[in-house]
Amino acid sequence: MAREDYVADAQKLIGPGETVEAAGVFGLQDDYKAIAAGGVATAIATPHGAPPGLAGLGAGAGIAISREQNAEAQGVTVRMLLAVTERSIHLMSMHAIGGGPKKLLMSFDRAETKVETSRFGLSRRLELTEEKTGQHIGLTGNTAHFTYGAKGDKTVFEALGQ
């Protein structure tokens, strides 16, 4: 499913009780300590004199494993659909490549959620913290016009007043 407008898919999962204002595909923020540890482990495990391509594949696998473990520890997926309604912010699971949202993972009460954004290269980071429950998640979205998903992510940032 190569498209940027996931509002209808999000609406199906949320149901008729709330109207989806914006939806975009976001990634879970990386745990750089775990990625670095994976890189060190890969370097140690790669035989001396191995072709550079083998080391590169190993490093890529280490990053992917680190991301999956980080997501699993937080009860989410590496790639998620974030949908904004008048009352809530919903996160839904998605496959790493292609397809629409699969299930609702977590929801935040919009009135009780602190929203913080920051720039990170060509991306923007989004921190959501529901103050009364302490529920927190860090996400990364694309806003550069030439990146996949930028249109939807921009609508999410706008809906959240960012």
Would you spell out the secondary-structure blueprint of this structure?
Blueprint (H helix, E strand, L loop, with lengths): L6 H8 L5 E9 L3 H14 L6 H23 L4 E7 L2 E7 L9 E6 L3 E8 L2 E8 L5 E7 L7 H10 L3
Antiparallel strand pairs: 1-2, 1-7, 2-3, 3-4, 5-6, 6-7
Task: Describe the model.
The chain is an alpha+beta fold and 162 residues long. It has two domains: 7-29 and 77-159, Pleckstrin-homology domain (PH domain)/Phosphotyrosine-binding domain (PTB) (PH-domain like, Roll); 32-73. The protein has four helices and seven strands; from the N terminus they run αβααββββββα. The protein has helices at residues 7-14, 32-45, 52-74, 150-159; strands at 20-28, 79-85, 88-94, 104-109, 113-120, 123-130, 136-142. A seven-stranded antiparallel sheet has the order 4-3-2-1-7-6-5. β5 and β6 (123-130) form a beta hairpin. α2 (32-45) packs antiparallel against α3 (52-74). It starts with 6 loop residues before the first helix and ends with a helix. The mean pLDDT is 79.
Spatial sequence of strands, sheet with the most strands: 4-3-2-1-7-6-5
Helix content: 25-40%
The chain-level mean pLDDT equals 79
Question: What is the CATH architecture assignment of the largest domain?
Answer: Roll
**What is the C-level CATH assignment of the largest domain?**
Mainly Beta
Order of helices and strands: HEHHEEEEEEH
Count of folded domains: 2
CATH-level-4 superfamily name of the largest domain: Pleckstrin-homology domain (PH domain)/Phosphotyrosine-binding domain (PTB)
Q: For the CA atoms, what is the radius of gyration?
A: 17 Å
Q: Strand content of the residues, in percent?
A: 25-35%
What is the SS-derived class?
A: alpha+beta
Biggest sheet statistics: 7 strands, antiparallel
> Could you give the count of β-strands?
7
**Distance N to C terminus:** 27 Å
Task: Count helical runs.
Answer: 4
